Amino acid sequence: MDTIDLITKTFENSMGKEVHSIHKFDNVPNNQVFKIETDSQSYIFKIYAKRDWPENGKLPFVNQKLDDYLAP
Fold it and tell me: How many structural domains comprise the chain?
């Protein structure tokens, strides 16, 4: 299974939405970043190059910042 197929399967199983397209961002240091398009929305899917990254607490912090930004 190639990377795009794996991302598609992982995303669709996790989010319950059908992937219409995936575009890989070039020139991203240390990680792989993809833009995923669905019917209703776009998503960013990031594959980290190191096992110990992101550091503890980073993802909840980013999630909270996004929630704050999107709050009415």
Answer: 1
- As a whole number of angstroms, the distance between CA 21 and CA 36 comes to 6
At residue 23, what are phi and psi to the nearest 5 degrees? -125, 125
Domain assignment of residue 18, given as a range: 3-70
34: burial class by Cβ within 10 Å (0-12, 13-18, 19+)? buried
pLDDT tens per residue across span 27-65: 888 888 999 999 999 998 888 877 776 677 777 877 788
pTM of the model as a whole: 0.68
Structure tokens at 42: 């776009």
Query: What pLDDT digit, counting tens, does each position of 1-27 carry?
Result: 798 999 999 899 988 999 999 999 998
- The DSSP secondary-structure symbol of 66 reads H
SS3 (DSSP) at 37: strand
